[in-house]
Amino acid sequence: MASLTIRKLDDAVKTYLRLRSAKNRRSVEEEVRVILRELIEGREEPLTPFSAPPAPSSAPTPQRTGALPEASVTLIIGGGIAAYKSLDLIRRLKERRVEVRCVLTKAAQQFVTPLAVSALSHERIYTDLFDPQSEFDAGHIRLARDCDLIVVAPATADLMAKMANGHADDLASAILLATNRKILLAPAMNPLMWNNAATRRNVAQLQRDGVVLIGPNSGEMAEAGEAGVGRMSEAIEIANAAERLLRPPVPKPLAGKRVLITAGPTHEPIDPVRYIANRSSGKQGFAIAAAAQAAGAEVILVSGPVDLDDPAGVTVKHVESARQMLEQVQAALPADIAIFAAAVADWRVANEGEQKLKKTAAGMPPLQLVENPDILATISKLADKRPPLVIGFAAETEHLIDNAKSKLARKGCDWIVANDVSPATGVMGGDRNTVHLISRKSGEIAVDSWPVMTKEQVAIELVAHIARSVTDKSLEPAS
Ligand SMILES: Cc1cc2nc3c(=O)[nH]c(=O)nc-3n(C[C@H](O)[C@H](O)[C@H](O)COP(=O)(O)O)c2cc1C
Fold first, then answer.
1. Which of 123, 147, 198, 380 might form a disulfide with 412, Cβ 3.0–4.6 angstroms?
2. 3-state DSSP call for residue 5?
3. Is residue 199 domain-resident?
4. What is the pTM for the complete model shown?
């Protein structure tokens, strides 16, 4: 039987379901079941429970504190004084775009009201294992499995004892026994209960079972004059721990690697106010810097004049001319990987004017050009500080692959990223790029042509190749 994940539905459908379920005082899942039953029985309610769908609210939407994708949590609230903090926990989780469905134990209802919990979670709450409304299709199993994480806060000594021993005589313990999701417990109890040998045994057993604990903290107890370990962690600590468990771990394949990147054009002065430049925007090099940083590398970006914000977490050295760029590149060595994406001017003016050149009757000023230093070749041919992987860029307007292959041989680098920059492609200054990765593979020159991608995608793909090459010996360095 297929299962339906409500949070993956279109926003409009979700809004409709939420409004309709709120109106009928049912959970969203129950409302879906009712709609399906009515359809089958031919008693379909009109599809507009309210006269018109709500207009988008002008009220500020809750602040999203992390880049967490939508997720859902079943929150079990146990019967302890700290249950009041769970109201704040619901809010903290919802701020992180986590849907929260709450289960209250019988004892929990002595500390917080189902109405308060339901109002904060915008969902009906669950209290009873033998609730005919939700159990006609094993609701406790859905609560156990149709979520990404189960959080128990406060986790009472009693609930932990039941869990450690596999009891299932109420809704909370039945869910905890029937789940295959990760469980996060936030214990809260008197220090003597926490230190009791039975609780110690139960906690040790739960940890062996793979249950994750947050807290308890040390501090004042609700009971007058008592202090010690047993205070439930603060709502924000529990929400952060839940977020860590919900967010898929981000791989950091370049952790511990130092990556040097150049980007942008260079400006070669003619006189104090004029210069020779090119159309490079620096977007590709900046995207590579951001992708390498996200992959865990320490990144130094040497950039020519560009109109871009420095990528977060990257050390940026701003330069103007090719000679300044080379100077900063040499200063940044040693590096594990060097990527030369800058469009460095091949020539500069030999006789740079100290003052602004003036129009004279003698005609045009004679502009003598001399070659700039070749940064890629200089670094590729270093005897001592050559980075183990040196990658150059070949921006060509004709004979792309042939020119790039000969550049690979001539410069002595390991890979060339070749791209066609003829005006029709819109690559210079644009957001997309079509590249060919030229490398040496088992002694042969290999050409890997990638489809048209955004410059960010090219950057991510290139960083993924670099990460693989760190372990793949078939991508041989030139020297
Ligand atoms: C005022 C009061 C406060 C309590 N606080 C706690 C507590 O903080 N931690 C705990 O483990 N039990 C506490 N208890 C005991 C639990 O409420 C009791 O063990 C109950 O059976 C737990 O049920 P549950 O685990 O199903 O929620 C408290 C009891 C009372 C009367």
1. 380
2. coil
3. yes
4. 0.53
